[in-house]
């Protein structure tokens, strides 16, 4: 199992992965000047099961 944390709370994803004994990774995230968001996920093999961790607090538009 691979836990992938979105940028809203990487500590939550890292802690969950450690607690469960799973591998952990983060996405690459940036916001362009026009407000568009860019996400790049790590390489995932077809055999990996993935758990995405994110929160929408405090601003759901900035927590993608």
Descriptive overview:
- The protein has 64 residues and is of the alpha/beta class.
- The chain has one domain (2-53).
- The chain contains one helix and five strands.
- A three-stranded parallel β-sheet has the order 2-1-5, with helices on one face.
- Strand 3 and strand 4 (37-40) form a beta hairpin.
- The protein is flat.
Q: How do the helices and strands line up, and which of them pair or pack?
A:
Elements: E1 2-5, H1 10-20, E2 23-26, E3 28-31, E4 37-40, E5 50-53
Parallel strand pairs: 1-2, 1-5
Antiparallel strand pairs: 3-4
Give a short synopsis of this structure.
The model has no long low-confidence stretch (mean pLDDT 85).
Oligomer: single chain
Q: Helix and strand string, N-terminal first?
A: EHEEEE
Q: Which stretches are poorly predicted, pLDDT < 50 over at least 5 residues?
A: none
What's the number of helices? 1
Q: Structural class, from helix and strand content?
A: alpha/beta
Q: What do the pLDDT scores average to? A: 85
Counted beta strands? 5
Gap from first CA to last CA: 22 Å
State the share of residues found in helices, binned by percent.
10-25%
> β content, as a range?
25-35%
Widest sheet: strand order? 2-1-5
Number of domains: 1
């Amino acid at each position: 199992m691979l836990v992938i944390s979105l940028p809203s709370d990487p500590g939550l994803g890292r802690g969950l992965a450690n607690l469960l004994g799973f591998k952990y990774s983060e996405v690459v995230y940036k916001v362009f000047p026009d407000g568009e968001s860019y996400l790049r996920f790590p390489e995932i093999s077809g055999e990996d099961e993935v758990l995405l961790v994110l929160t929408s607090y405090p601003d759901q538009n900035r927590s993608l």
